Amino acid sequence: MPELPTGTLTFLFTDIEGSTVRWEHFPTEMRQALARHDTLMRACLQRYGGIVFKTVGDAFYAVFSSAPSALAAAIHAQETLAQETWDEHIGQLRVRMALHTGEAEYRDNDYFGQTLNRVARILSAGHGEQILLSATTLGLVRATLPDDVVIQDLGTHHLKDIQLPEHIYQATIQHLRTTFPALKTLDLSPNNLPAQLTSFIGRTRDREAVVHLLQRADVRLITLVGPGGVGKTRLGMQVAADLAETFPHGLYFVDLAAIHDQQGIINALAQAIGIAKGEGHLLLEQVKGALRGKILLLLDNVEQVQDAPQLVRELLLDIPDITVLVTSRSVLHLAGEHEYRVRTFTAPQAQRRAPDLAELEHNEAISLFVQRARAIKTDFCLTQANAHDIIEICQQLDGLPLAIELAAARVNLLPPHAMVKRLGQRLRLLHGQDQHRSTRHQTLRETIEWSYHLLNAAEEEFFQQLAIFRKGCTLEAAEYVCQLAAPAEYDPLDILHSLVDKSLLRLRENEEGEPRFEMLYTMREFALEHQREETLALLRHRHAEYYADLMQRFKSLPAGSEQKHWLTRLEVEYENMLDALHWCSTHGNIEDGFHLAEALSYFWWVRGRLHEGQHWFEALFHALKRENQVVSDVVKAKVLERASVFACSQDDFARAQAWAEESLSLSQQLDEKEIMSKAYVALANVALRQDKFALASTHLEESVKLRQIVGDVRGMAGLLNNLGNMARQERNFARAALLHERSLGYFRQLEDDVAVAAVLNNLAEVEWCRDRRAQALALYTESLQLSRTIHYSWGIASSLVGLGDGAFARAEYEEAKHLYKESLHLFQEMDDRAGITTCLENLTTLLKRLREQEEAQEVEVVGYNIDSSLSPISTTSTIENLRAELGDQLFNALRTAGHIPSMEASILDAFKDI
After folding, report:
1. Considering 420, 445, 470, which residue would you say is the last residue of a domain?
2. Is the pLDDT of residue 437 over 60?
3. What mean pLDDT do residues 72-80 have?
């Protein structure tokens, strides 16, 4: 594509009228016709200096430095298309065209801004074979018009999404079609739709879905339902504007925010449609008499008017041609009502790597923040420096449009980084200054209060108590934790259903179809503010009890498919469980906290959250000393063993050793053989990680004896795996393979997929050491597939390393790089230092091999260039190259964690002979 011009430009937009219907009926013929259309259009545009900077379907977006050239290109294109012979099935292709001149924002080889919005809206108002011009463009071309082109004044029109009206003209080519229907603008239908001061962003699917519903003959009542601030009103007005042709007799907007009774609705209706006189029943009859023909009524903010459903029903029964679109925080529960839930925007997930700015700009939440911020601070833009903070803001605000707009309005005072730090006080932070907003939308608190005051006493009480759940809850959890003052009078399920109806809760379903009730963060903050301290303490206690019991149920499950289901459920409940754990560690409920942490240890291990596990065990031990409490020795022994395992995984060998020894001592005093056996394994792990094979063997033999005494099949299977690891370390590969295979057989019988995946990786490593590479790669592949299925992070990362080694051995270096990098990111997330070191060493070896291949040339190494003149290669250069490949965030995290210095030594060693 040629370099795009900047400055004051003329844009020519085109598209084909009626193309969708043709595609549906004649796809083959349409494909051929569109190819011909594209060829002709490009030739005509290029002939007059136009550059096509984007195509979307059959639409062309072209830019010209000269307005006369743009009009000449449009005229030539219409003449060329009219002379073309088209397939008889699809008939003449009729292309509409629009021109507008102005400045546009240019970035990433594309244009943005109001000029583009305006030309797009002018185009949408036109018809096939028509050329439309804005007044600005006409002023630049009037002196150079061809003799056979006449300009027709089509008048001033209100365009969708555009605040001010636009004067539109038509360029008529005398030997082509000269008459067209009226422009498809808001002026096509009588209406009182308010002018919008800001552009409509996102909601493409919602907009299309609601428009489609309103065009159906059997749909006469739709209720847009959602929480305050989600954008129901704006969506409703946009949909109404889209339907000017469908409802030619009128589009009427009726704001009921300040109305509280039926007479108020009647008065507002009369005012909207222009009836000045009348009262009571007489006025209602006048309204009904005036609402004749295809009319759309948009009734906004209906939730607080108790009599509204009855009046809506009466209007629908007495006036056969009207359709009613309602916005409300609760459904009307009328026969024939179609409920459409307006959801919050979905904010993108936080990323460890540098985000793709072009992709982020298409996210509705991010786009809304950036555009509203730009209205306050004209030079504001999305950058690599602020992208992570803006993502965090949108996530913490639940993607709620009002909250995002209020936050963006603060950007002059608080840049995104500073705003993130204050999100804990959302309701204080998000206070708007826009006096054009309705009173209830001036602050987020007022928006929520509007809904809160519509609740009865039992609903208020339950709503406040549900805020104890950080990430929503099941019906079972709500019934256990939340207690009503008058339980005999109210069913919790009925109250939950009512809160969902009133948009204070969101309803989701899990894989089994069980309901889950979620509260927006902003709603939760408001509810917690209204909770009494003594009630909150009781709720916290019951909340911790519930999740401790949930974890005990999980621990008692056999391995297999049911355990997979529970792992998924625990993922959903994880933040709730951390809340419970935090409360236990800070409020003296240490024993329950230990129960939770001990039960969670399996989940932490499987999901690769090793550093979190160590953090919580340390927090509980500190709390135990601080509170000076006595906990059960059995519980303490179990927790010490688990804590030792996590400390060992983080290379904290001194603490791991001490905790394992204390666990062993306590369990021996209690004669708890199962705990004793696990403590010996913990000690063996510490010895093995320090290459003390004889000591590790002694500990494992003691553990085996204890497992045999208690008849623990699972424990024996685990020990066989540990013994296999030790045999591999001693390079007794035949014995290692035998032990791992026996262990694998036991775990397959037990249907313990996590253990199966782990042993498969260990067996694969043995086979690799025996130079049986095909068998090793097959085992790694099987483990990877299983680990991905159950989201077993350590299993995934370990399999990727093995498969990376296989790719490296086959000289498939790009594939090896990809596998090593994915593994490195997983190990870094887990803070698994041994895994991180392995991946970095593998990447270093890869650097060396690529360097050897290219020798004295400047080569691309792992995605970046190393200057071949460096001999020997400097550590600094290589480290900076690795920074470029891994990204600053991961690289700095590894350096902070202490991995980069050892990596530098590895790189020096790798390149010492070059």
Report:
1. 445
2. no
3. 95
Q: Is 558 exposed, middle or buried (0-12, 13-18, 19+ CB in 10 A)?
A: exposed
User: Which regions of 330-407 does DSSP assign to beta strands (E)?
Assistant: 337-341
* Residue linked to tokens 């070191």: 837
Cβ distance 402 to 221 under 8 Å? Answer: no
Percent of the chain residues topping a pLDDT of 90: 35
Q: Which residue has the higher pLDDT, 761 or 554?
A: 761
What is the domain-level CATH number for residue 676? 1.25.40.10
Statement to judge: residues 441 and 460 lie in one domain:
no
- Nearest by Cα to 50 from 103, 88, 99: 99
- Total count of residues recorded for the chain: 914
Q: How far is residue 159's CA from residue 124's CA, in Å, rounded to a whole number?
A: 9
| Crossing angle of helices 833-854 and 899-910, rounded to 10° | 30
Beta strand 864-866 pairing with 322-328: unpaired
The number of domains in the chain is: 6
Q: What is the DSSP string of 589-619?
A: -HHHHHHHHHHHHHHHHHTT-HHHHHHHHHH
Residues 34 and 177 in one domain: yes
Please give the model's pTM, rounded to 2 decimal places. Answer: 0.62
Type of residue numbered 761 = N
Q: Both 657 and 776 in a single domain?
A: yes
Backbone angles phi, psi at 352, to 5 degrees: -75, -30
Distances (CA, A) of 854 to 199, 526, 814, 877, 913: 55, 63, 15, 17, 15
Average pLDDT value for residue range 668-691: 90
Residue 904 inside a domain? The answer is yes
Would you call 84 helix, strand, or coil by DSSP? Answer: coil
Domain CATH code at residue 493: 1.10.10.10
For the chain, what is the mean pLDDT? 84
Asked if residues 765 and 728 have their Cβ atoms less than 8 Å apart, the reply is: yes
Largest CA distance in the chain: 108
Q: Are 265 and 305 in contact (CB under 8 A)?
A: yes
Is residue 876 helix, strand or coil? helix
Q: Do 362 and 396 fall within a single domain? A: yes
How many Cβ atoms are within 10 Å of 710's Cβ, its own excluded? 12
Do 721 and 697 share a structural domain?
Answer: yes
CA dist 44 and 50 (Å) reads 8
Does a structural domain hold residue 536? no
Closest by Cα among 534, 455, 522, 532 to 495:
455
Cα–Cα distance, 563 to 906 (Å, whole number): 42
Long-range Cβ contact pairs of 40-43 (< 8 A, separation 24 or more): 40/77, 40/80, 40/81, 40/84, 41/14, 41/77, 41/95, 43/80
Is 549 part of a structural domain of the chain?
Answer: no
Q: What is the pLDDT of residues 225-255, one digit of tens each?
A: 998 889 999 999 989 988 888 898 889 999 9
Would you say residue 67 has pLDDT above 80?
Answer: yes
* Residue 266's CATH number: 3.40.50.300
| Distance, CA of 216 to CA of 214 (rounded, Å) | 5
Q: Are 166 and 202 in contact (CB under 8 A)?
A: no
Q: Are residues 636 and 693 in the same domain?
A: yes
Task: State whether 216 and 179 are in the same domain.
Answer: no
Residue 737 has pLDDT above 80, yes or no: yes
Domain endpoint, select from 389, 418, 445: 445
879 pLDDT more than 60: no
**Whole-angstrom distance, CA of residue 8 vs CA of residue 65:** 7
Position 278 in a domain: yes
Which residues share a beta bridge with 860?
865
Domain that residue 503 falls in: 455-531
Rounded distance, CA 866 to CA 847, Å? Answer: 10
* Contact present, 447 and 402 (Cβ < 8 Å): yes
User: Do 586 and 634 fall into the same domain?
Assistant: yes
CATH of the domain at 14: 3.30.70.1230
